[in-house]
Amino acid sequence: MIRDVKRIEVVLANNDRVTLRVDDVFLKIDVDQTRTNIEVAAMALAPVPTPEVLWRNPPALALSALQGAAIGDLGTLSSPEAWVSAGVALRALHEAPLPPWPGESLADLGTRLDDECEWLIANDVLPTEVITGNRKLAEKVLRPWTPVFTHGDLHAQHVFVEDGKVTGFIDWSEASQGDALFDIAILTLAHEEHLDDVLAGYGAEIDRDMIHSWRSFRCLTAIRWLMENGYGPPEDYPEVAVLLAAGR
Predict the structure, then answer these.
(1) Is 61 helix (H, G, I), strand (E, B) or coil?
(2) How many Å apart are CA 128 and CA 142, to the nearest integer?
(3) What distance in Å separates the CA atoms of residue 137 and residue 130, rounded to the nearest whole number?
(4) Cβ pair 156, 72 in contact under 8 A
(5) Cβ partners under 8 Å of residue 248, min gap 6
(6) In the prediction, which pLDDT does 230 show?
(7) According to the model, what pLDDT value does residue 248 have?
(8) Which of 57, 71, 131, 240 has its CA at a distance of 20 to 30 angstroms from the CA of residue 113?
(9) Which fold, 67-246?
């Protein structure tokens, strides 16, 4: 039992998941326990710092807080060294043994892209030429790759740093076998100015064009979910800004 609570904060709330911060404990409640199973298993396997599992009582999972702050929340206070450190940690994850569960197949990814683009056009969310232009970019990711251990949702709010060093990655429910370039694309999605820093830490030759293709894929396939889960008007989404810039 938690006593003498001084802070309760709603971190995330949508139609099927809620995350609360209760002092230094994160309480995650998810209607889909498959996602929670993956999160717990991935954190146990990952060779990078992760929150400690304090207890689990389905549908709730209690995790410890990480030190520092999310690199995406630091704005101009985030140092190049912190982004380099993120690249180092990400490379360590990608070089780890594969998790035993697979990711989406190329066929499934292609079907999802088709469905989401059709929905965006049918609902007049963005100009058709922006959608079709980004779809051409996104289709380039539908090629064979060597699978690695991917986080699967490594946007900058999920990477915690302190004093220029990564203290951990959070939110592992999308972890799987996947394309390394997807994680890099998501981490730098709204932070293009730090791509060079991340790649310096990652330390490998990277196809930058494919990173931009994965960004288009991610943005096209995320907007409907964001709209349906109360994240405000699409014009405020970083994903829309990325699509508009890429579609020019």
Answers:
(1) strand
(2) 21
(3) 11
(4) yes
(5) none
(6) 85
(7) 59
(8) 71
(9) Aminoglycoside 3'-phosphotransferase; Chain: A, domain 2 (3.90.1200)
Q: Are the C-beta atoms of residues 245 and 163 closer than 8 Å to each other?
A: no
Element (H, E) at 9: strand 8-13
* DSSP helix/strand/coil, 148: strand
Residue 148 bridge partners (DSSP): 178
Instruction: Round to whole Å and give the CA distance between 31 and 168.
Output: 25
**What is the pTM for the complete model shown?**
0.94
What is the Cα–Cα distance from 3 to 11, expressed in whole angstroms?
Answer: 20
Mean pLDDT by 10 residues, the chain (248 residues): 75 85 92 96 98 96 94 85 97 98 97 98 96 97 97 95 96 97 96 95 94 97 94 93 85
Which residue, among 190, 201, 164, 203, has the nearest Cα to 79 in the 3D structure? 164
Query: H helices within 175-237, ranges in order?
Result: 180-187, 195-202, 208-228
Task: Give the per-residue pLDDT at 153.
Answer: 96
Q: State the helix-helix crossing angle for 106-122 and 208-228, rounded to 10 degrees.
A: 60
- Of 224, 227, 223, which Cα lies nearest the Cα of 242? 223
CA distance 3 to 247: 52
Question: Is beta strand 69-70 parallel, antiparallel or unpaired with respect to 148-150?
Answer: unpaired
